[in-house]
Specification:
By secondary structure, the chain is an all-alpha fold. The chain has one domain: Non-ribosomal Peptide Synthetase Peptidyl Carrier Protein, Chain A. It contains 4 helices and no strands. α1 crosses α4. It is globular. The termini are close together.
Amino acid sequence: MKTEEAVSWIAEVFEEAAGRISAQTLRKEIPGWDSLGTLSLIAGLDEKFDIQLSEKEIGSLERVNDIVDLLRRNGAVED
């Protein structure tokens, strides 16, 4: 998966239009990135990529790029 595809997948998780967010978009700028959105993200990461997050990792996600980096570290994103 390329970075652009990862950002599109993240937009889908948070029910945002594909072009509305970028890697630099902050969490607070995405209305769907609330507690329910975070649960959807956790479930999606587990189901699609077999990635489980610790509470510390979840708390450290502040922008879309943090999720992309997480996917990259786990081999799901290649540039």
